[in-house]
Amino acid sequence: MRRLNEILPADRVVASDGGHFIGWANTYFELPCCDSITLVGTAFQSIGLGLPSAVGVAAARPEATVIAVTGDGGGLMGLPDLDSLIRTATSAIVLVFNDAAYGAEIHQYGSQGLDQQVMMIEQADFALLGQALGARSAVIESPGDLAAVEAWVADGARGTFVPDLRISREVVAPTSWKSSRRRSRRPDPGARAAQGRSSTLTARRSSIAR
Ligand SMILES: Cc1ncc(C[n+]2csc(CCOP(=O)(O)OP(=O)(O)O)c2C)c(N)n1
Ligand SMILES: [Mg+2]
What we know:
- This protein is 40% helix and 17% strand.
- It is α/β, with parallel strands linked by helices.
- The chain has one domain (2-172): Thiamin diphosphate (ThDP)-binding fold, Pyr/PP domains (Rossmann fold).
- Helix 4 runs parallel beside helix 6.
- It starts with a helix and ends in an 11-residue tail after the last helix.
- The chain binds thiamine diphosphate (TPP) and magnesium ion.
- Residues 19, 71-73, 99, 101-103 line the site of magnesium ion (MG).
- Residues 19, 71-73, 99, 101-103 line the site of magnesium ion.
């Protein structure tokens, strides 16, 4: 995410689905202004709305690069609007946090002993899906693979790029219910401050030129 923050155009606006990944964009991305991010998954408590919302954001802010953030679960639910985004956006990138699972369920409920089988998703290839619909795309398995995103930005960041971010299910976000419960049992002021920073809307004014 730090590397993507460096790579992506400074004039950016984020539309985020809900899921275990929910804290990453607002933690790591510098944003031009307080209205540069919409956490639609949080607002509606429903997954699957990230991609449709990105279509609206792209229509409203055609001069900016839209950063759509979704999981593989929510991304598959909103898949028809990946097509809408690719057909209509001037500049968009779809960050798919692909852990082949409903990760939030695993970390909240699977970790308490519930059967995780129903929380798994067969690995979907969002790079292929994006390509089939007319986007540029790449499977990203390590930071070095982000060179494909750099190349898209170097070409003017036009149209839509779909980086299929193959992530580990083992990494538990500090914003997750499980880790915040653990912290509340063993208070750690430093971690609490970090959680507060990442779980609130931290769309900070930054020195990024608009
Ligand atoms: C319509 C709907 N169904 C189910 C849920 C419960 N739910 C919240 S997060 C989540 C998992 C989302 O999976 P994914 O999009 O892959 O993101 P991940 O948690 O794996 O990062 C689910 C099923 C919900 N909020 N809305
Ligand atoms: Mg997932």
